[in-house]
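Exercise 7b. Backbone tokens:
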């Protein structure tokens, strides 16, 4: 089969030609339904296991830190001041980022689709939650 959909004899053909002169396969996979592997591919399983392991390690570290003594009264007062300053910084930072987040959401909705813009907006507040929870 030659490029342009013609055979060597000059007959028209409806089969499209792939790079290299071979016709495209109309099947999605060379494997039959019974030969296809079931379940998630190995890289996906590795990523899932690594994510779960990370969550477990984070929980163990959190539990360890929570079991430690809070320290003296002076240490607790200093920790409160640091927390207050950190929360003030985060509130200001997120208020500065808010117009940028809205602009990106509008551009995504305009360029890709409304659902993409809404999905971005639904996930964007997640990092803000610690700053406004205290």
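Sequence design result:
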């Amino acid at each position: 089969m030659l490029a342009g959909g013609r055979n060597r004899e000059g007959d028209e053909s409806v089969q499209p030609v792939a790079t290299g002169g071979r016709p495209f396969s109309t099947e999605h996979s060379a494997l039959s339904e019974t030969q296809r592997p079931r379940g998630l591919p190995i890289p996906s399983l590795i990523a899932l296991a690594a994510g779960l392991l990370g969550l477990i390690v984070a929980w163990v570290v959190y539990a360890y830190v929570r079991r430690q003594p809070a320290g003296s009264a002076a240490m607790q007062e200093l920790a409160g001041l640091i927390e207050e300053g950190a929360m003030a910084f985060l509130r200001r930072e997120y208020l500065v980022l808010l117009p940028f987040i809205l602009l990106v959401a509008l551009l995504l909705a305009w360029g890709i689709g409304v659902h993409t813009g809404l999905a971005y907006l639904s996930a964007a507040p997640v990092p803000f939650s610690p700053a406004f929870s205290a």
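Instructor comment: The chain has a mean pLDDT of 80. Helices lie at 42-67, 73-111, 114-123, 129-133.
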